[in-house]
Design a protein that fits this description.
There is one protein chain. By secondary structure, the protein is α+β, with helices and mostly antiparallel strands. The protein has two domains: 129 residues, no CATH class; 62 residues, no CATH class. The chain has six helices and six strands. A hairpin with a 3-residue loop joins strand 1 and strand 2. The longest helix is centred in the N-terminal third of the chain and has 30 residues. The two termini are 23 Å apart.
Length: 191
């Protein structure tokens, strides 16, 4: 009587499963971390939306001005035993963990330049007075914010709220577990 059980090639699974699993974990982690910028918050056990900004200078999306921070999230290391996904942007840590930034003279110069840029764009009436248009109110709010930042003393601290986009996440681990089970089932069929 023939044996109905098909022999399993464990060497094939061992050689390829670890490599493919590490590659899958790296790509899924990168995708999960980049999606935080689209969702506007961090998901661990539940979704935690980022705190809104108080600056009138920001665009429509939080932490998405140029997209550089989102694009800096990438695979840093991938071996059979370890996968590291991170960001090489210098300012990624302060946004991810929160903290304080100390005001420097260079920062003050930057804010003064921004103040002059925004206050110079104010539209005047024929009599030389500032127009009360909606665009002027928006410009003046930006100029006032820049002026407040420029008037801060060198050495004072600015608190940056935590807006986590990289770290350990139960939601990510559930995604990876599900993908790993699917991958094992695929190898079991191929073996």
């Amino acid at each position: 009587m023939a044996n109905p059980i098909k022999p399993v090639n464990f060497n094939y699974a061992r050689e390829n499963l670890l490599r493919d699993t590490a590659r899958m974990a790296a790509s899924e982690s990168q995708k999960f971390f980049r999606e935080c910028f689209v969702r506007g918050g961090w998901t661990d056990a539940s979704f935690q939306q980022w705190k809104n900004r108080r600056s009138p200078l920001g665009g429509k999306k939080l932490m998405y001005g140029t997209g550089n921070l989102k694009q800096s999230v990438r695979k840093m290391e991938e071996t059979d035993a370890r996968v590291v996904v991170g960001s090489d942007a210098g300012y990624a840590g302060i946004h991810n963990d929160g903290g304080t930034v100390t005001v420097t003279a260079q920062m003050k110069r930057y804010w003064w330049a921004q103040y002059y840029r925004f206050s110079g764009a104010v539209v005047k009436t024929k009599k030389g007075k500032t127009s009360k248009s909606r665009d002027n109110r928006k410009i003046s709010a930006k100029a006032e914010f820049c002026k407040r930042m420029a008037l801060m003393k060198v050495g004072s601290n600015i608190k940056i709220p935590q807006r986590q986009f990289i770290g350990e996440s139960r939601a990510l681990m559930n995604i990876l577990d599900s993908r790993l089970q699917t991958k094992i089932a695929e190898y079991w069929e191929k073996a």
